[in-house]
Amino acid sequence: MSSRAIEHFDDKARETFEHAGRTTVYGGELLRHPVYTRILHWTVALFFFLALFSGFGIYLPWLFRWFTPIFGGGQLSRIMHPYFGVAFVFFFALQALNWIQPMLWAPGDTRWLRNIKTIASGEEKMDPPDTGFFNAGQKAMFWEIVAGCIVYLITGIILWAGAKTFGRISVAISYVLHDISALIMLGGIFIHIYLSTIGEPGTFHSMIRGAVSEAWAWTFHPAWYKQVTGRDPVQACEEARRQMNAGSKS
Ligand code: HEM
C-alpha cells in the first residue's frame, strides 16, 4: 500500500470513529491520540492479554492451570488461544498502518538510543531536543511488536495446522520461536506499562482522554511540541517556571 493510500484509509477510519468517543482538550493541553487510535490501542491490549493468559495455560499447564477456568477450562483455552492471537495481530496491523508515519526511524533516534543512560537516569530535565512524536525507545518497541506479529502469524499457523500438514520438525521449531517471541514481547510490555504509567507521569492520560499537558509534551517530546505549537520548548518551560515562581510569591 502506498503512503498516500495508508493516509487515506486512516483519515477515513479516524473520521468514522471520532463519533464513537469524545476528546476534550483543555487550555494548556495538546491533542495526542484521537478516538480511533485509543480504540485500536485498547482492543490490541485486550486481545494481547487474552492470548497471553490463554497461552500461559498451554505453555506451562502445571504452573498456570489456575488461568484456564477464565476461558472455560484447559481444552477451551487451547481452542480460543489462536483466535485471540489472530485478533491481536489483526488489530495491531491496523494500529501499525495508523502509526507507520510517526514510527519511521529518524537520525535523531540513533542519538537518543546512544544517550539512553543519561535519559533514563533523569539527569536531564528534558528529552533531547529532536525527540519527535515518538522517541526511539517507543519506536523500537513498536517495530519489535511488528516483527513479533509476523513470527506469531507464521509459527501460529504451523502450530494450528499441526504436524500432519507441516511435519514434526516445523512444529518443533515453531514452538520454540513462538514462545521466544512471546517472552520478548512480554518483557517489552512490562517496561511499556511501567513507563506509560508511573515512569513518565501524565502519559496514561493520552490513551484515556486523548490529551496531554503542554509541560508533558515539552519534557518528553520537545520536537513534537515545537511542531504543533510553533514555540520553543526550552523557552516555554522557562516561561512557565517564571510564572509559577511569580504566582507563589504573590
Ligand atoms: C495496561 C496495559 C497498557 C497501558 C497502561 C498502556 C499505555 C499506553 C500509553 C499511555 C500509550 C501512549 C504513549 C504516548 O503517547 O507517548 C501507549 C502507546 C503504545 N502502546 Fe500501550 N499500554 C498498554 C498495553 C499495551 C499492549 C498490550 C500493547 C501491544 C502489545 C501496547 C502497544 C503500544 C504501542 C506500540 C504504543 C506506541 C508506542 C509507545 O508509546 O510505546 N500497549 N500505551
Report, as a whole number of angstroms, the end-to-end distance.
58 Å
Radius of gyration: 21 Å
CATH H-level homologous superfamily name: Transmembrane di-heme cytochromes, Chain C
Principal-axis shape: elongated
Q: Could you please say which CATH topology applies here?
A: Fumarate Reductase Cytochrome B subunit
Q: What is the average per-residue confidence, as pLDDT, rounded to a whole number?
A: 93
What portion of residues is helical? over 70%
Low-confidence sequence ranges:
none
Largest sheet: 2 strands, antiparallel
How many strand elements? Answer: 2
Any descriptors?
mainly alpha; 250 residues; Fumarate Reductase Cytochrome B subunit
Concise structural overview:
With 250 residues, this protein is mainly α.
Could you explain the architecture of this structure?
The protein is mainly alpha-helical and 250 residues long. It has a single domain, classed as Up-down Bundle (Fumarate Reductase Cytochrome B subunit), CATH 1.20.950. It is 74% helix and 2% strand. The chain contains 13 helices and two strands. A two-stranded antiparallel sheet has the order 1-2. The longest helix is centred in the last third of the chain and has 32 residues. It is elongated and about 75 Å long. The N and C termini lie far apart (58 Å). The structure holds protoporphyrin IX containing FE. The site of protoporphyrin IX containing FE has 19 residues, from helix 2, helix 7, helix 9 and helix 10.
